[in-house]
Amino acid sequence: MNFLRRFSEMPAKLVNVTPKDNLLLIGINRAAKKNCVSHETAKQLIAAFDRFERSEEHKVAILYGEGGTFCAGYDLSEVAKGKVPSGQFLEKYRPMGPTKMVFSKPVIAAVEGYAVAGGLEMSLMCDLRVASRKAIFGVFCRRHGVPLIDGGTFRLPKAIGMSRAMDMILTGREVDATTAYEWGLVNRLVDEGKALEEAIKLGKEIAKFPQNCMRADRNAAYFAAYDAKSFEECFSYELKGGLEVIGSESQPGASKFVGRKSKI
């Protein structure tokens, strides 16, 4: 009886974590709730991404939703009951979980169905977004008086420009996948049901490159976009990261290139 009691008190598996070669697949597992994120789901997502960040084996993470929906935002049934994350939790994280975490490696979102409200913000946390042609994006929380507090107010303008971001933020309208692709919100557009498959393919391509060089360039781009105060700071940060990999990856890579019969 004690075992059964302990078993019943264990948190449900709300996030599926699946190693696949040198990728780590992280799937929100609340399909019956359109993968809305509860506080417990947020904590499990944090644990999954912490595992990814600490792993030397996994080069790229892929975030997706089980059951044909990426994520429809935060679970408003918790908000309606006044159940909100504590101030202590919000000092380090945000309601959706890992959106404030800083990753040293690429993360790809595989989007089927809805990526709206906090789900849109989760997709913006990722470096790249692969979406089904049937995917829908939007700031649907506008309709319910729920603010963007998982990075949407600054990541969305960075991704698609202020004018288009304001269109989404102020109106709460839905944006179809084709429009999102034309705006640059989506990086790859695929047939329905193929987003995860294509994201895995893309992740494997990225994982083949010399990793330290790729990560240095990625870090420099983020620094320039969010942290740099001047043109000179951008150049200094870029140079510092680049010099660190010349001996370990650039020189061997150049030697390999020079030794090839075909230089294409």
TrEMBL record:
Q: Which SUPFAM superfamilies match?
A: ClpP/crotonase
Highest taxon above the source species = Eukaryota
Which molecular function terms from Gene Ontology are attached? catalytic activity
Q: Which PROSITE patterns does this chain map to?
A: ENOYL_COA_HYDRATASE
Q: Gene3D superfamilies, per this entry?
A: 1.10.287.2460, 2-enoyl-CoA Hydratase, Chain A, domain 1
CDD domains (alphabetical):
crotonase-like
Into which family does the record put it? Belongs to the enoyl-CoA hydratase/isomerase family.
Q: What is this protein called?
A: Enoyl-CoA hydratase
